[in-house]
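TL;DR need structure tokens for one chain.
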Amino acid sequence: MESDTARFAFSPEPGEVTRVTLRWGALSAFTFGLGRFWFKTTQRRLFWGRTTLGGDPFEYDGTAGEMLRGSVMVVILLGLAILGFNLALSWASLLLTGAISPPASVALTLLGVLPVLEFAKYRARRYRLLRTRWRGVRFGMERGAGGFVLLWARHALLMALTLGLSRPWLRMARERRMTERMRYGDAPFRFEGRAAPLFRPWAMVWFGALAAFAFLAVIRNFGLVVAYGEARLDVMRVLYPLSAALAAACLYALWCGYRAAELNAFMEARRVAGLRISCRLEGAALRRAAWAAVGRGLIALPFLALFLVSLAATALNLAVMAEGGDAAEVPLSLDLSLFARFETLAGQALFLVAAWANYGFAVLYLIWLVHGVHAPRAHAALMAAAEATGLASLSGVRNRPGEGQIEAEGFADVLDAGGL
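>> reply
TL;DR here they are.
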């Protein structure tokens, strides 16, 4: 008879996450994002497969083709929706004022996209759940993205009125709405969380941001000039970037504390059958994951910069040689505005290939930091902090008929609202 208590764990093989991230991240980077569907699919299969509960791994059986087909549909539908929204705004602006205000049109368009992002987040979770299994039983989620967007709209109004201070109530309401529509086989999830305990850690972030903004505004608008003979130094101008970096680090530390409290609340509020989860994630664990990415990034940055400069210099020399010109007359830059300097097909091709490679390696560097360094550490910290009780109550759960027949989904990935 199995124990009623089981721990979560994330245990990839040494170097496994890095290899997958670099290999499939390169496909995404060098195809200008087209390969991100294959990258995300492979990454999810790795993360799911190396995450266990009670020693049993999760399974992800989504495909890149599903996301790609859904994304093509979304690009068309979203383009038509934005076009229609802008036409309606233009008509209303002409009717009311007799003119069209470009800044107002852009602002209202961005505002109109926010509900679409929320729609995408709901659909993204539904897709991931419907493509996830544990012990052979598939997770699921009922339809209901429209009601989810209406719920968000009500709380977004409250967020606007409170200047963001009511965020915990928005987040808890969203999570409750989604969780209560989640399924594990034929067993429905329940949600028993409250927003009030999250207010204190969020208020620390909110007031910290307010204090940081006021502090930086003072430094920026007041000068302190020190003169020594003919030399003059504006101390405030020197202190501003250092102060901004310090303020950002302090705010991120506060944010990690809030995010850890939020994840703990969400994990512990979910119930399915008799299973309960206890989670004791600390903000320090999330900060360590972030600092690991920063540290690795700083170590790798000089080597990346040297490589990219060498690449640019070599490519430009080859391109100029193909033109029969003098390399000293061409600046060491791969700015696309320099493309007009090259007249031959060989020179233009060499320049474009160099610019493409420069872009690809720079993006791959960021993908590696986010998905190869930070994400696995943060995920491992969350799994190490979580423990489940009542696991035996899931023994009678069965798959629901037809649960595996789902539609393709790419909405969130097009809008970059997806993720692990």
